[in-house]
Amino acid sequence: MTEISDWRYRIERYRLIGVRCRRCGSVYYPKRSKCIKCGSSDLEEVELPKRGRVVEYTIVRLLPDRYNRFHPYAVALIELDDGTRIYGQLTDVDLDKIHEGMEVEATLRKLYEYGESGQIVYGIKFRPVLSR
Amino acid sequence: MKPVNGVGIYGYGAYVPRYYIENEAIGSIWGRITYPIKNKSFPSFDEDTITIAYEAARIAIESSNAPKDRIHAVFIGTESKPYAVKPSGTVLVDALGLSNKILSADYEFACKAGTEAMETVFGLVASKMIDMGIAIGADTAQGRPGDELEYTAAAGGAAYIISSVEDGVLAVLEASYSYVSDTPDFWRRSGEKYPRHLYRFTGEPAYFNHIINSVNGLFEEYGYKPSDFKYAVFHQPNAKFPQRVASKLGFTKDQIAPGLLSPVIGNTYSGSSLVGFAATLDVAKPGDKILLASFGSGAGSDAFAFEVTELIEERRAKPPIRDIISRMVPRDYATYVVYRGKIWR
Ligand SMILES: [Zn+2]
C-alpha cells in the first residue's frame, strides 16, 4: 500500500463496501472484478452488514514499520449477519479471550500511520458489540 | 440568544473508550494519596479524536434514523486534533457516508469547543441555510506524566444531530447565553505536546466565574430559575467542581446526578459536558427541561436551556452511555503509557 492506494480504497475500507455477483449472488470483500464461483464480471457494489460472529482467528505479530504502534493484533474470519464471510482485524479485545462465535461489530479505527509526521490511515475494524 | 425559527436536537450519541486507569494506579507511581476522581478513561492505541467522533456520530445517526443526505455540516470541537493541519471532519464525511455537499471544520476552545460547534449548527439550521448538521465534542486529552492533569485528562465524545423543529426534534433549544473573557487558566502552545496551567486561576476566576455568569445571564435574560429544570449538566474537570457550581447556582444533587460522569470516566474535555448531557437525555422524559453549561479554559462558558419532547422515547441513544461505560476494563500504568504513545517500541 502507498498513500495513493490508501486514498483510492478509503471508501470501501471506511464503510465495508464489497461486491455482489449479479449472476450467482456471491459476495466479496475486498472488492474484486471477477466472481470466483461463476466467473462472471457482472458485479455490483454493496455495503455489507456491520455485525457478525468470529468463525476463526489468528494473531499477527510481524508487520512493516508503519504498523509499529498497532500490533500485535488479531485477524478473524467473520461471518456477517447476511452470511458473507470476510477477513477483518479485531480491536478492543484481549488477545487471549477471543473465541469462536464472539459477536462483533464494525467500527472505524487507525490501521497504521506513515511515521510520526506522515499520514494516518483509518479503516474498519471489528470489536465486541457494545450492545445487542 | 434565541433562534427566530425553532431548532433542536434530532438525535444524539456518546462514546467512551474501553479502557480506564484508576487514579490510585497513577498516584502509586508518583507518590500521591488523594485524588480528584476515581477512574479516567483512555483511548486504545488505535483510537484518536476522529475515531471517537465517528463512534458517537454513528450511534447518533443509527439511533435517530437521521436522513444522511440532509446533513450539510459536520463540526468537531476538540483540543486533541490528530493533525495540526488537516480537518478531522472530512474522514467522518466519507466514513459515515454523508453527502459531499457539506460544511466541515474543527473548532477549538479548550473544553467548550463542542458546545461552540453546537451553537454554530443551531445558527445555520435556524437561519435555514442548511437542513441538518452534526456537532461533535471529542477529545483524547493528555496530561504531562506526574502533573495534576494526568489524573483527570480522559477520552470520550458525544455527537448531536441538529435540525429544525418542523423535522421533529427530541429536545427543543429554548435559549442560550455565552460568556467569554481573556483568562489564562490553561493553555497549550503550538507544537507542545502537553498543556500548562495556572493552578491558582483554575477555580474561581476561570471555571466558577464563567459558568456562573453564563447561567445567570441565561436566567436573567429569559426568566429562568433553577427549579424550572428537571436536570442540569455542567462541565466536569473533576468530581468536585460541577457539584460545587451546581450548589452555588441553586441546583440540587438530584438535578445533576444523571449527567455527572467525571468520577468514573474523568474529564473528556470537549466531550465532557456533552457526554453528561447525553447521559441525561438517556433518562429524560417528555416535558423535562435541561440546563447544559460548558466551560472552556481561556476562558468561556456556553449555557443552553432545552425542553425534551415526546420523540425522546423513540430516538434515545442505543446503547445509552452508561451501558458503554459499564463495559470498561481497568489497565495498569504501563499499559496506559504504551497505549497513549508516551513510549515507543
Ligand atoms: Zn458469481
Describe the overall structure.
- The complex is a heterodimer of chains A (132) and B (345).
- Chain A folds into two domains: 1-48; 49-132, OB fold (Dihydrolipoamide Acetyltransferase, E2P).
- Chain A is mainly β.
- Chain A is built from two helices and eight strands.
- Chain A has a five-stranded antiparallel β-sheet with strand order 6-5-4-7-8.
- Helices cover 9% and strands 42% of the residues of chain A.
- In chain A, a hairpin with a 4-residue loop joins strand 5 (73-80) and strand 6.
- In chain B, strand 12 and strand 13 form a beta hairpin.
- In chain B, the strands form three sheets. Chain B has a nine-stranded mixed β-sheet, with helices on both faces.
- Helix content of chain B is 33%, strand content 25%.
- Chain B has two domains: 7-170 and 314-339, Peroxisomal Thiolase, Chain A, domain 1 (3-Layer(aba) Sandwich); 174-309, Thiolase/Chalcone synthase (Peroxisomal Thiolase, Chain A, domain 1, 3-Layer(aba) Sandwich).
- With 345 residues, chain B is α/β, with parallel strands linked by helices.
- The model of chain B has no long low-confidence stretch (mean pLDDT 96).
- Classes of the chains: A mainly beta (132), B alpha/beta (345).
- Bound molecules: zinc ion.
- Zinc ion (ZN) binds next to loops of chain A.
Descriptors:
heterodimer; A: OB fold (Dihydrolipoamide Acetyltransferase, E2P); three-stranded antiparallel β-sheet; 8 strands; globular; B: 345 residues; alpha/beta; Peroxisomal Thiolase, Chain A, domain 1; 2 domains; nine-stranded mixed β-sheet; three-stranded mixed β-sheet; 12 helices; binds zinc ion
Describe the SSE topology.
The complex is a heterodimer of chains A (132) and B (345).
Chain A: H1 3-8, H2 10-15, E1 17-21, E2 27-28, E3 43-47, E4 51-60, E5 73-80, E6 85-90, E7 103-113, E8 120-128
Antiparallel strand pairs in A: 1-2, 1-3, 4-5, 4-7, 5-6, 7-8
Chain B: E1 7-15, E2 19-22, H1 23-30, E3 39-42, H2 49-64, E4 71-77, H3 89-96, E5 103-107, H4 113-126, E6 132-140, E7 155-164, E8 171-183, E9 186-187, E10 196-197, H5 199-222, E11 231-234, H6 240-249, H7 253-256, H8 262-265, H9 272-281, E12 289-293, E13 298-308, H10 312-315, H11 321-326, E14 329-330, H12 333-339
Parallel strand pairs in B: 2-14, 4-5, 4-6, 11-12
Antiparallel strand pairs in B: 1-7, 1-8, 2-3, 6-7, 8-13, 9-10, 12-13
